[in-house]
UniProtKB/TrEMBL annotation:
InterPro entries: ADH-like_C (IPR013149), ADH-like_N (IPR013154), ER (IPR020843), GroES-like_sf (IPR011032), NAD(P)-bd_dom_sf (IPR036291), Quin_OxRdtase/zeta-crystal_CS (IPR002364), Zn-ADH-like_protein (IPR051397). Residues 11-325 form the Enoyl reductase (ER) domain. This is NADPH:quinone oxidoreductase family protein. Pfam families: ADH_N, ADH_zinc_N.
Length: 330
């Protein structure tokens, strides 16, 4: 089969090679699937540079989530059969940026009929992260104000839709007019172009000086520090990631005097600590997709030949929504 492989560490366009590799076989508890679609995620970018907490042995095929069609079932697997359309995470080194991939049956779910292949592939990491972050960790309630950073990206766009579905008032922060238009289309009640406006001032104005009840921050660094200036009394700042490149330190005295919480989220740990909750989350997301309340924003559908450039655009911060490798119809 053909697959993209990271052969050395560096920028995605420099280290990804499209090559012929052996078809992967499923191990115990695993599935081999024909890849129907696989989105580019920030962990894929970081793994290309050796900067992610997971460091696969070279060479490996990235693509950490996907939608696929089951072609082979490993020993000890129940509930899946050849031909099933599924979504979930890949088992590296056999990721989604190839014609075939390997998945753990325990973290694989039926793909919602309401979504096409590229949309279904994008429902896993970003939407599960948003669901656990907003509901399980931050306890978002109807009527509260939710501030979402990087609101036109894959993770941020999911948080907008999930926040609106929960009955929150959503303020989205983006960089540039094109991304602002996307955030409005996704349903944000207020959109802030950080290149033109100070999001702290806008949040205070929109909330009568109270601040945002929940702040969803996948950026970190100065974005986090400025967020502490517009968090409400008993607000929750949700630390989702550090896409801005800086892992900031938290001033705990400030959290004390302003009475807010700093809440961390490592969604992947739920697969080990509470897999039943992950399954519950998928059921809820499937229902939301069926009702039209959530629909992953797929901005680019890539052929297999174009994957490296698509991952590089994600690394460069020039993408909007999800950039997804989608298998060409046969």
């Amino acid at each position: 089969m053909k697959a993209w492989q990271v052969v050395e560490l560096g920028e995605p366009r420099d280290v990804l090679r499209l090559t012929d590799v052996a078809d992967p076989e499923p191990g115990q508890g695993q599935l081999t699937v024909r890849v129907l679609a696989s989105p580019a995620n920030f962990p894929d970018v970081l793994m290309c540079g050796g900067q992610y907490q997971v460091k696969p042995e070279l060479p490996f095929t990235p693509g950490v989530e996907l939608c696929g069609e089951v072609v082979a079932v490993g020993s000890g697997v129940d509930g899946f059969a050849a031909g099933d359309r599924v979504l979930g995470g890949s088992v590296l080194p056999h990721g989604g940026f190839g014609e075939l991939a390997v998945m753990d049956a325990a973290t694989t779910f039926a793909a919602p009929a309401a979504l096409d292949d590229a949309e279904a592939a994008s429902l896993y990491i970003g939407y599960q992260t948003g669901w656990f972050g907003l509901h399980r960790r931050a306890g978002l309630r109807a009527g509260e104000t939710l501030l979402v950073h990087a609101a036109a990206g894959g993770v941020g766009s999911a948080a907008i839709q999930l926040g609106k579905a929960a009955g929150a008032r959503v303020i989205g922060v983006v960089g540039g007019p094109e991304k602002a238009s996307v955030a409005r289309e996704l349903g944000a009640d207020v959109v802030v172009d950080r290149r033109e406006q100070d999001f702290v001032a806008v949040v205070k104005e929109e909330t009568g000086g109270r601040g945002a009840d929940v702040i969803y921050d996948p950026v970190g660094g100065d974005t986090y520090r400025r967020s502490t200036k517009c968090i409400a009394f008993e607000g929750r700042i949700l630390v989702v990631g550090f896409a801005g490149g800086e892992i900031q330190s938290a001033a705990l005295n400030h959290a004390l005097v302003k009475n807010y919480s700093i809440v961390g989220l490592h969604w992947g740990l739920y697969n080990r600590h509470d897999p039943a909750a992950v399954a519950e989350c998928h059921r809820d997301l499937t229902e939301l997709a069926a009702s039209g309340a959530v629909k992953p924003l797929v901005s680019e559908r890539l052929s297999l030949d174009s994957v490296a450039e698509g991952v590089q655009r994600l690394a460069d911060g020039s993408t909007v929504g999800r950039v997804v490798y989608q298998r060409e119809a046969s």
